[in-house]
Amino acid sequence: MDDAMCNTRYLRQRRGKGWAAVVYVPASIQRKAGKREIVRGLGTRDLKEANKRKWPVIAEIQQYLARLQNPKSELMEEAVRIAEDFDLENEQLEDGISEAAHRIEARYGEGIAADYYKTATRQRLRASIALQMWMEEADGITEGTKVKYRGHVEAFIEWSNDADVNKVDRRMAGAYVTHVKTTPNWRTGKPPSHQTIVHSIRAVGRLWKWLDLKGYLKEDKRNPWSEQVGSAPGEKKVSSQKELRAIFKVEAQLWLSATKEQPQEDLILLAWHTGIRANELAELTVDRVNYSDEQVFWLTVIAGKSEANTRALPIVSKEAIEVLRRRVSGAVDGIIFHELKPGGPDSKRYWHIQKRINRVRKQALGDAPVGVVGRPSESSGAATLADVSTHRRHLRLTRVSPSST
């Protein structure tokens, strides 16, 4: 059994052999919580299943404890709910908000009371509260994308000291863009790439777009983040396009020879031969691999970046068909890349191996400017390779133009 699935962290086995999630309450809020620990049953006697079920339960408990530690968070949530129905002509509602603010001031102080009153009456909305509202309603994006968006917006919140969203103008937005451009990456010590800058600013801009659609921004307020990722007059233009080229024969051989595991080699080969993103290949199941004859296989790709990405693709490469035959015959529970353990916020099989693939690529190729083909995780198949043979014994690559694919 996988070590991650047989550990008992945050778990306790009850007398009836069922497993329960356990979270200890910090001493500072034990009086408020009325207990030293919170225990919730998981409805299973199987340890592996308990490890799967415990995390959502633990997250819910930790959110509850966070509210006890920080009463402002819960009060702001209440203020936002009130703000949704606030009407300046409703004097009774405004009087009720004022009375609540006085009670809050007596208990928690003037600062929290002022935030509560101004938020409830739509005079103020902190960026942190706006982010929380957005994440709760954003059910059309994946958990992995939510994590990225949240990280980018929280960076702005920290920089701006949690600014009122209606106080953020184009000057402040421009100053933050400059901050992002000039702040070195904490891991590499190098300036961020153009792509990182674009992702960071667009994430914050999407929050403001959501606020505008929901009516939380003043009517005369223009989205301060629009057009912020372009170059200002006088600035050197930065191309958003990477230098793309097909990898050379010797580079492909180096890369393949550096792989230490079969799933990694198979993913790279299939990505090269099909143009399908490696994260989509990693999720393939037996029922989505068919063949019309011995020379042509068909792959049905689903759950891409958009609904339009659902498609059936013919596979004619001998090497790709060889990999598919072997993978289908060795599938476990219908999963072709069964060796890859799901991970990450979206529980994807590509989560762990993508790091190993990129690490091996860098070890083998260094900083060679390979783009679409050299990075199968972003492979789109356009303007890359056709008639590719990448078996270790005989490797033939042909560069093609977009018009010929």
Task: Give a structural overview.
It contains 15 helices and 8 strands. It has 405 residues and is mainly alpha-helical. It folds into 3 domains: 3-69, no CATH class; 125-240, DNA polymerase, domain 1 (Orthogonal Bundle), CATH 1.10.150; 249-404, hpI Integrase, Chain A (Orthogonal Bundle), CATH 1.10.443. Strand 7 and strand 8 (395-399) form a beta hairpin. The radius of gyration is 27 Å and the shape is globular. The chain starts with a helix and ends in a 6-residue tail after the last strand.
Give a quick set of tags describing it.
3 domains; 405 residues; three-stranded antiparallel sheet; DNA polymerase, domain 1; hpI Integrase, Chain A; disordered C terminus
Question: What's the SSE blueprint?
Answer:
Layout: H1 3-6, E1 11-13, E2 19-24, H2 30-33, E3 37-41, H3 47-69, H4 71-84, H5 91-108, H6 110-120, H7 127-137, H8 143-160, H9 170-182, H10 194-213, H11 249-258, H12 262-274, H13 278-281, E4 289-291, E5 297-301, E6 311-315, H14 318-329, H15 350-365, E7 385-390, E8 395-399
Antiparallel strand pairs: 1-2, 2-3, 4-5, 5-6, 7-8
Provide a concise account of the structure shown:
The chain has 405 residues and is mainly alpha-helical. Helix content is 47%, strand content 9%. The two termini are 46 Å apart.
